[in-house]
Amino acid sequence: MTAAPSERGAEVGRRIGVGLMYGLWKPRVLGAWKVPATGPVILAVNHAHNVDGPMVMGTAPRPTHFLIKKEAFIGPLDRFLHAIGQVKVDREIADRTAITKALGVLADGGVLGIFPEGTRGEGDFASLRSGLAYFAVRSGAPIVPVAVLGSTERRGRLIKGLPPLRSRVDVVFGDPFEAGDDSGRRTRKALDEATVRIQERLTAHLENARRLTGH
């Protein structure tokens, strides 16, 4: 049985992320102070580049445990990602092990990172899965929207899906908010309603972040 996600491991991952992200790109971090300093928090991150997860890990003010697709846990990366406190998830099923570990992170007062779109795409929060609403409603943890905005130019890219090396990447943290309606309901209807509310807040944050950064 795999050990529970380690807070110490996630801190090591954060330090590695700092070195890599600031070494390869030029991150500009805005609003990091909005992330609550203590207690459970969910970071809801848009997903347009393969570097989005490591970029947030390296720029967030607290160690972050991301839900990461199982396909990334291959070869040496499997042991490494587990060692730095990340959570492997099978996106094709209701992965009870991943769900339990993610809720455990929040129950312990940690930070859970989620790509609510489920996979890398346009990064515009246009299609949200219900997983984010489930974790937020079930745990009561506030959601902090995070917009990662980098160059979409193909010129200068060494690897598809990554911003050009040494280009500026803006990471904009938004105001925390509660996803639930204070009713305590966890029905499918309640989660669907929460997903709509979440999508509105995330989309508004992304639009504001783009205006703020010029991306």
Question: What brief labels describe this structure?
Answer:
215 residues; alpha/beta; Glycerol-3-phosphate (1)-acyltransferase; 7 strands; globular
Description:
The protein has 215 residues and is α/β, with parallel strands linked by helices. The protein has one domain (7-213): Glycerol-3-phosphate (1)-acyltransferase (3-Layer(aba) Sandwich). It is 38% helix and 17% strand. The chain contains 6 helices and 7 strands. Strands 1-7-6-2-5-3-4 form a 7-stranded mixed sheet, with helices on both faces. α1 packs across α2. The longest helix has 26 residues, at 188-213. The protein is globular. The termini are far apart. The model is unreliable at 153-158 (pLDDT under 50).
List the helices and strands and how they pair.
Blueprint: H1 7-24, E1 26-30, E2 41-45, H2 52-59, E3 64-69, H3 76-83, E4 87-89, H4 96-107, E5 111-114, H5 131-139, E6 143-150, E7 168-173, H6 188-213
Parallel strand pairs: 1-7, 2-5, 2-6, 3-4, 3-5
Antiparallel strand pairs: 6-7
Strand content: 15-25%
Termini separation (Å)? 44 Å
Count of extended strands? 7
Query: Given the structure, what is the number of helices?
Result: 6
